[in-house]
Structure to design on (690 residues):
DNA sequence: CAAAGGGATTGAAAGGTTTCACAAACCTGG
DNA sequence: CCAGGTTTGTGAAACCTTTCAATCCCTTTG
C-alpha cells in the first residue's frame, strides 16, 4: 500500500487504470463513483482502495463532455475591489453551496474588453449559467449568449428587455428615503454628489431625491448638484472641497452621496477642513458597506440587501436551469435606510 | 444568412456540423481554429461563415480533455471581502491576461471545508495551476495536490517545507519599521493590537515590533499587548475601549495595529471618546488598504506590494508549468511604511 | 426442479475536440 | 514535361468519462 513518489510521474491514473488495478470493469468504477448503492460493498471497497492507491482524480472535462454541462456557476463582477460586489458574491456562494455547485468569480474591472473575454471563456466552458453585473446591461452580447443556451442573470442592473432574469434594488426609492430623512432632520438645501449623467443607477437615486423634495413641497432648486466623474473616495474629497468653497449663504447643510466611497471622501475633507459632521454638514451615503459603519463618524447610509441580492440571483439561475418551462423574472428589492451619527444632530 | 430563432433549439452545433455546412472535413475546421495560416483564405472564409451561421461555440471541455490541461488559473482567496486580497487578485489578473489565461477566483472565507471543496473541484477541472492563500499553509492537502501534478503557489504565507513556490512579504521587517517610526516620533510605550497568538503573520509583525524596541534600547515591557480574537473593525473598536480604560500612567501613547481594519476600528473609538489622533494616540495600521488613506484621519500604514505580490505569484506559476526543470522559489517582498497624519504630531 | 425475478457487473457507444500521418493538388525550375 | 517540393486538405485515433442495454449469477417462488 506504499507508494513510490520518485521518478517522472508515469501519467495521471484514469478510471481505466483503477478498473484494472481493482480487477473490475470500467463500468463498475463508474458505478462506484456515481451510484455507489448499486455496487456490492466488497467490490466497492476494492475499487476505493485502488483509487486511493493510484491517487485517482476524477477528470471533470471528460465528465462535462459527456454530461453536456458543468457544475460551475460564474459571477462576472463589475468591480472586484468594491466590497458591495464581494458581498453579493458571498450570497451567491451560499446558494451555490447548497446546490453543490462551484462559484467562480471573474472581475471585469469596468473594462468591456475584459468582460467580453470572460464571457467568451465561460461560454466555451459551458458553465451552467452566468451571473453578471455588466458594464452595459443592454449589450447585445448578453442576449446572444442567453439565446445560445447559457442562462444569464443580470445582477444589480435592469436590462431593457425581458430576455434575462434580473435582480436589482429600487434606486429611486433609495434616493427618496435618504433625502426624506434629511428633510425630516430639518435640512432644506441638500447637495447631491455623484455622476448622475453617466450612470443609470445614480440617475435613479437622484430622481428619488427630487421626489422626496417634491413631496415636502420643495422645488428641484433645493438640490445642489456636485457632479463627479466616477464614484471614488477621491471624487468625494474633490466634491467636498468644492462644497466647502461655496458661499455660506447657498452652501447646503446636508449631502446625499451616490455611494459610500464618495461619502467617505467627503467625510475626510470635512475632517481636514474642521467641518463638523453632522453639525455643519449631515451626510448620507449609499450601499452601507462595512466601512460606512466603521468611519470615524459612523455613516448613515442606504442599505441594499446585498447578500440577499446575490443569493436570489443564483437561485433564479438555478431555477432557470431546472424548470421545464421558464418565465424570466425581474426581482426588485427595496433598500432600507440605516441611520447613524452622520445625520443625527 | 438569416437564422430562425424560434422553436426548440436543435442542439448546439459542433465542429462536425460546421464542417458539414462548409463542405470541408473536420480536420480543416480544426485548422481554421488553431492554425489559420495552414488554410487557404477561401476555405477559411467558408468555414468562418459556417461558424457564424451556426453560432458555433467551441467546447472547452472537449479541448481540455484532448489537451490534458486547461487554460485556467485559479486563486483561492482567504477572504474575498478583504480589499487586500482583491488587490492581490488584480495583480494576478494582469499576469494571466498576458499569458492569455483566465483567472477564476474562489473565496474560502476562512473556512477549511470550503477551501477543501474548492481545491478538489479545481483539481478535477485540471486547472493549469492553483494560487492560494491557505487557511493553514502547512495542510498536507496542498502538498498532495502538488505531488499529483497541479502546481500550487502559496501567496502571502510561507509554508514550512519547500514543496511549493511561494510569495510573501517580510512581516518581521514590516513590524520593525512601523514601530521604529513610532519611536522616532517620541513614543516609548506602544500598544500592539492583534491576535499574535493565533496567526503566524501577526506573530511576525509583533516580533519586528520587539526588535525595533530593542534596537532603541527599550525592553519588551514597552510593548503593551491588546490581544484580539480576529482582525476586524469590531476587534479594533473593542481594543480601543480597553485601551482608553487603562490608567493614564500606563496608557500607551501610540498603537501598532496588526491590520488596517483594526486600526480603523480603533480610530472610530477614538472619535467617539474624543481622543485626538495623533495628539492623544498615534496609530499605525498594516496593509495600507484604500480605506486607510480615506479615513477621517489618514492612516499611517505598512504597505505591502499587493499587486506585485499577485503578479509575481502568477508568474511563478506560469514558470512552473513552462520550465522543463523547475526549482521552487520562495520570493519575499519588502514592505514599506507610508506615513500619514495619524502619526504626525 | 424449473422458471422467474432481482441484484451486480459488464462492454460498447458516445460526446467534441486535437493531432498526426498521409494524400492530393499545385508550383518550381531544370 | 517531370522530379521534387510546398501548400491544402483529409481521416482516423485518442483523450476520459457516463450511460444503458445486455449478461451473469444467485435467490426465491410455484
Amino acid at each position: 500500500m506504499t507508494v513510490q513518489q520518485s521518478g517522472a510521474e508515469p501519467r495521471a491514473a484514469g478510471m481505466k487504470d483503477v478498473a484494472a488495478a481493482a480487477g473490475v470493469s470500467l463500468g463498475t468504477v463508474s458505478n462506484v463513483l456515481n451510484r455507489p448503492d448499486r455496487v456490492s460493498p466488497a467490490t466497492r471497497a476494492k475499487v476505493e482502495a485502488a483509487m486511493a492507491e493510484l491517487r485517482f482524480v476524477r477528470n471533470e472535462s471528460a465528465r462535462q463532455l459527456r454530461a453536456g454541462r458543468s457544475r460551475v456557476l460564474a459571477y462576472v463582477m463589475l468591480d472586484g475591489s468594491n466590497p458591495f460586489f464581494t458581498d453579493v458574491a458571498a450570497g451567491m456562494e451560499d446558494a451555490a453551496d447548497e446546490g453543490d455547485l462551484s462559484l467562480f468569480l471573474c472581475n471585469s474591472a469596468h473594462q468591456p474588453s475584459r468582460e467580453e473575454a470572460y464571457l467568451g471563456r465561460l461560454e466555451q466552458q459551458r458553465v451552467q449559467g452566468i451571473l453578471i453585473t455588466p458594464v452595459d446591461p443592454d449589450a447585445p452580447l448578453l442576449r446572444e449568449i442567453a439565446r445560445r443556451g447559457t442562462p444569464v442573470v443580470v445582477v444589480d442592473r435592469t436590462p431593457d428587455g425581458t430576455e434575462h432574469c434580473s435582480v436589482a434594488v429600487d434606486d429611486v426609492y433609495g434616493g427618496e428615503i435618504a433625502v426624506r430623512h434629511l428633510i425630516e432632520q430639518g435640512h432644506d438645501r441638500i447637495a447631491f454628489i455623484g455622476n448622475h449623467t453617466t450612470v443609470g443607477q445614480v440617475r435613479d437615486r437622484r430622481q428619488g431625491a427630487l421626489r422626496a423634495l417634491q413631496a415636502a413641497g420643495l422645488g428641484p432648486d433645493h438640490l445642489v448638484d456636485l457632479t463627479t466623474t466616477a464614484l471614488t473616495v477621491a471624487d468625494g474629497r474633490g466634491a467636498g472641497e468644492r462644497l466647502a468653497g461655496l458661499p455660506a449663504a447657498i452652501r447646503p447643510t446636508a449631502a446625499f452621496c451616490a455611494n459610500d466611497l464618495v461619502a467617505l471622501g467627503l467625510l475626510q475633507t470635512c475632517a481636514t477642513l474642521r467641518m463638523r459632521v453632522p453639525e455643519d454638514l449631515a451626510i448620507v451615503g449609499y450601499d452601507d458597506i462595512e466601512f460606512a459603519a466603521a468611519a470615524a463618524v459612523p455613516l448613515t447610509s442606504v442599505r441594499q440587501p446585498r447578500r440577499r441580492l446575490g443569493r436570489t440571483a443564483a437561485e433564479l439561475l438555478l431555477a432557470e436551469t431546472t424548470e421545464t418551462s421558464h418565465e424570466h423574472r425581474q426581482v426588485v428589492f427595496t433598500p432600507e435606510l440605516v441611520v447613524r451619527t452622520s445625520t443625527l444632530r
In short: Confidence is low (pLDDT under 50) at residues 1-8 of chain A.
